[in-house]
Amino acid sequence: QVQLVESGGGLVQAGGSLRLSCAASGRTFSSYLMAWFRQAPAKEREFLARITWSSGSTFYGDSVKGRFTISRENAKNTVFLQMNSLKPEDTAVYYCAAKRIGAGPYEDWGQGTQVTVSS
User: Fold this and answer.
1) Which H or E run contains 7?
2) How far from each other are the two terminal CA atoms of the chain, in whole angstroms?
């Protein structure tokens, strides 16, 4: 069973940076896509970025392109989201997700970590 545990959230001032981590366990992830989503109060969950575990190829949502970077460290089974130039509108709960390549919706989710950006 896949387990995803996010960490690294917190309170930061506008213009600052945070790095989120997602520790993944329970599978061999070589055939997986790993992604980050976020959900702000009263808003739908928003896709931010994904990475193909095996190749490291990445894809970003328009709202974070150029500011956020997704990466992974194979030895630690961990996926990161480096967030720079943070804005108050980035305030949300951030979730890590995983799915097998070729699957439909993301199958596995972490519990989320809160990011709050003050103006």
Assistant:
1) strand 3-7
2) 40
**Tens digit of pLDDT at every position of the chain (119 positions):** 899 999 999 999 999 999 999 999 998 898 999 999 999 999 999 999 999 999 999 999 999 999 999 999 988 999 999 999 999 999 999 999 999 999 999 999 999 999 999 99
Q: How many CB atoms lie within 10 A of CB 116?
A: 15
Distances from the Cα of 54 to the Cα of 10, 72, 103, angstroms: 30, 10, 16
DSSP 3-state assignment of 89? helix
Inter-residue contact 2 to 25 (CB < 8 Å): yes
- The answer to whether 106 and 50 have CB atoms below 8 angstroms apart is no
Check: CB of residue 53 under 8 Å from CB of residue 34: yes
